[in-house]
Amino acid sequence: MRTEARIDLGAIRANVTALxxxxxxxxxxMAVVKADGYGHGAIPCARAALAGGATWLAVAAADEAAExxxxxxxxxxxxxxxxxxxxxxxxxxADADVVAWDEAFVAAVATHGGGSVHVKLDTGMGRLGTxxxxxxxxxxxxxxxxxxxxxxxxxxxxxxxxxxxxxxxxQQLERFAAWALPLKAAHxxxxxxxxxxxxxxxxxxxxxxMVRAGVALYGLDPFGEDAxxxxxxxxxxxxxxxxxxxxIAPGESTGYGRRFVARAPTHTAxxxxxxxxxxxxxxxxxLDVLVRGARRPLVGTVSMDxxxxxxxxxxxxxxxxxxxxxxxxxxxxxxxxxIAARLQTINYEVTCGLxxxxxxxxxxxxxxx
Length: 369
Ligand SMILES: *Cc1c(COP(=O)(O)O)cnc(C)c1O
Known about the structure:
Layout: E1 4-8, H1 9-22, E2 28-32, H2 34-38, H3 42-51, E3 56-59, H4 62-70, E4 77-79, H5 85-93, E5 97-100, H6 103-111, E6 115-120, H7 133-145, E7 149-155, H8 168-186, E8 191-193, H9 197-202, E9 210-213, E10 236-241, E11 244-248, E12 253-254, E13 260-261, E14 266-271, E15 288-291, E16 294-297, E17 307-310, E18 322-329, E19 332-334, H10 336-342, H11 347-352, E20 360-364, E21 367-368
Parallel strand pairs: 1-20, 2-3, 2-9, 3-4, 4-5, 5-6, 6-7, 7-8
Antiparallel strand pairs: 1-10, 10-18, 11-14, 12-13, 14-17, 15-16, 18-19, 20-21
């Protein structure tokens, strides 16, 4: 093993169960597995989420729905993203539900042989959906009235659910409820859904019939804080190993551009993982890696295939020992949230940024999946 991401499907299953247990009034969980399950592997994660009690799956792109179907997954799937005419065909062929916000799109669904639609009201995200509640209602009526088209749901998406002390979330929630509750009264079979992970954890009033949980499934904290404090278990570990250890004398350097020059005698350990695997170059001289249960600072430039650590004198690392970039060793833990903070980004981007060269190894609480 050079470098691998180990994904605990038992954790994903438990996270879904915890979210379902906390959902208001028996609201369901729609497990969001877009972007290859936030880098964790969409197909095994979808199966684990369904085993944990999710009743729906969601993706962003039509091809992602087709991939789940090709793997033999039969659960209802919602494609949440915008769809070109070709992509609409792919989504409907995969028997996935799609999102509509204008009447022409409803007609296109019928032309493609029919399917189920969820009407989207843009209550403030400002991306997809119609801003106008009357238009949204007309689209819902058109779906209901069109042969071969089934009105399955009504939805919105929050822009600030992860921001503490903001009032915009409440305004969006109010706008959605004012439109969706009367619509539900007129069309009792529709499923109302609005909450992402942050909204689901923040406010029961946002749960409606179903929460669309993404990041929390993977045990990542939607607020960028401590996932464990929210009873979420991080599913992904990013592991490599010590491939070389060498002494380095004062004045000697390591890596491109000599961005680490030893001031005192020490040892470096070379770990074969780099930006070609998704360890961003911006982490140059700005990352800790666990070796022998202790944090060792990354020194020098992150290169495509390798990083170097300062492992001290005598060297607290030997060739062949494991090195953990995300995960725990002994009492020490490095989270995706910690790396996100170093990069001034969010945990989502850290796991989505793991590149295809990193094999994903799925297991159940340590047992082979
Ligand atoms: C990605 C996405 C979600 C899931 O968001 P998380 O913050 O990962 O829970 C929910 N709804 C929509 C429309 C999305 O695009």
